[in-house]
Write the structure tokens for this entry.
Amino acid sequence: MKKGMIGKKLGMTQLFARDGKLIPVTVIQATPCQVTQKKTVNVDGYNAIQLGFDAVEGKRVNKPLTGHFKKAGADPARYLREFRFEDTGKYEIGQRINIDIFEQGDKIDVVGISKGKGFQGGVKRHHFKGGGASHGSMHHRAPGSIGASSFPSRVFKGQRLPGHMGQDRVTAIGLEIVAVKKEQNLLLVKGAVPGSKNGLVLIRDSIKKSV
């Protein structure tokens, strides 16, 4: 990875291209991030930088983090996230990373936490077909048989069953940047992005350039 920053998903809208096509886009607010730590192969075993996002008052940060920000000469931030880079030489502690590192047409990957759905059944969670809908069926959305009885007398791991759905880390790969609004610190990304409105997202250059 060569570039990345933290942002906030604001929601979705749509744009008209010059040829008249309607393009669904996700609006991401990517205010400047500040480098709060550098990691190198010699010291940490890998190259990475830590970014701070969403500035807050100093009184809202605990003492260990207060010292961390003070040492870096950075403003206190609500979120800290780490990005692994091939080369961290061009980054300095305290440096601000702005939205202008991205341009229209760039391919990016966006990482977010998917919407939490709570406990869900097999039909919604795994797209099971379900039973007959006729009166007296007695089997509409129940999962049905899940294995043998006497042998192996247990349910195999990985069996698709009802359970907790969502709230997982999801990466959307190869999304295209339709527009960059530098004045408002906004990225307009073609298609959907993981997460709910106002959810935290990580933006980085795509690992699949050909997508």
In short: The longest strand covers residues 4-16. The chain has a mean pLDDT of 93. The domain at 4-102+179-193 is CATH 3.30.160.810 (Double Stranded RNA Binding Domain).
